[in-house]
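Readers outside the structure-tokenisation community will struggle with the description of the input data as it stands. For illustration, here is how one protein appears when written out as sequence plus structure tokens:
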Amino acid sequence: MADARAPAHVSSRPDAAREAFAALLQRHRGLLLKVVGTYAWQAQDREDLAQEIAAQLWRAWPAYDPARPVSTWMYRIALNVAITWVRGHSRALRHQEPWDEERHDIADPLAHDPEAGQQVELLYRFIHALPPLDRALMLLYLEDHSHREIGEVLGISEANAATKISRLKQRIRQEL
């Protein structure tokens, strides 16, 4: 039976709560991997960031409102943690190569169209060079989230999300 003070998704039994949370992380593993891969390029950094995001999600789990989409809640926390992590590691990140060819081998799926593969690679390089908030915007935009959803996840208005995305798309057209 769930604790009367806790939301319905949080059991009063610690093992049940951990199992429910682990299942949630597994169901949304792809979302977390995208965020981690967007903000951390080295294997150890990706592992550290993933652990930090999972820890923060666990801390926030009892306050999650099941009436809201879980993916929005997870994106918001994951992106906030990732942005904070990047800011805290900005000095080290400036001195590392942000492009790991083994990790970002995107030419293979597009081998039949080398020009398209090259364009996708340029887009990924462009995204990796963006400031953390703009990276989050592009990640959510490329995932086909609406301006409203993007604003909700990032804590900005729908109009602000639309404006920022429009400006980023204009930069992409100019730079690529």
Q: What stands out?
A: The two ends are 56 Å apart (CA to CA). The longest helix spans residues 70-88. Residues 1-6, 99-111 have pLDDT under 50 and may be disordered. The chain is about 70% helix and 0% strand.
